[in-house]
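User: Quick sanity check before I run a bigger batch. Here is a single chain. Can you write out its predicted 3D structure?
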Amino acid sequence: MHLHHKLHRRGMSLIELLVVTAIIGILLALILPAVQKAREAAARAACMNNLRQIGLATQHLHDACGKLPPTEGVLPGLSEKNFAPITFWLLPYLEQGNIYNIAVDKNGVYNSANNGVHTAVVKTYLCPSDPSLGMNQAPNGWALCSYAANALAFSQATYDKQGDLLTCYVHGPLVDGGNFSKKLYPLTTGGKKLPASFPDGLSNTIFWTEKYGICSPNGNGDDGGNQWASRFEPQTNPLIGYGVGKPDLAYGSNQPDEQAPVYGLAGYFQVQPVPWLGAGGCKPGIASTGHTGGILAALGDGSVRLCAQGMSPTTWWMALVPDDRNPLPSDW
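Assistant: Done. Predicted structure follows.
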């Protein structure tokens, strides 16, 4: 005769369950920061690669045309009826020739708002760490951009006070749809050559940096930020260092409808400004980054580097001015 013994499995007590839960919580607390750090490192690497591609495309554009276009205006060799920001003229050199070709009208004129091309999302222009991107378009459908051209490098920059680099920027007047083809303005004057037009050295001059896709103290995503096809709208043009904003919209300030300088000490970059849509955070017309510890910048020689958050505002602006002829300080 065989005796069968019934085995009884005892369940977890409440105390044991709490201990296991606590251990899991501790493990998660240890792992999550490492995961977040790895994710940010990957995003930073992707952003650096984007800026590197943009920097190299700038050099290829220069080689093809023999000189650089202005921050906003006409490509060298075309008539003044053609008009777009430099981010448009770069498209063929970023393997985006299909988007570029859509923007020509029946008269052979290129404009970055022709035929709906301004709604096209360009992946190279998007930083994974830009928290403002959302669906990669502004509410009005214009495609967003996380990078901005240094207007002082591509356009005609002048000093309010000779010898004072903190007073150097691209002056007005405001370029709009009514006056852009009548004559050249500081913003639309280009033609600089590499390396002759950059006495400070290409490796010491910032050409490109980061800027939030949406940045509006007014609370309207159409009124502030960075759109790669935008022209005539300083609040959304893909640039920094341009000293005039459109009236009645925030520019250089994080307060609704308020305007302030965007150059010199006031032009210092923002690190993770919050909010980017609403008062008290992001400043339209000023460089901004979603990364921790500093902002990325592409230099004139095509290299990309981190400008640390502890860098002084003077050093930052010195690196944007291409002809101050001063050696960059140690915090560069």
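The first helix runs from residue 14 to 65.

User: Great, the batch can go ahead then.
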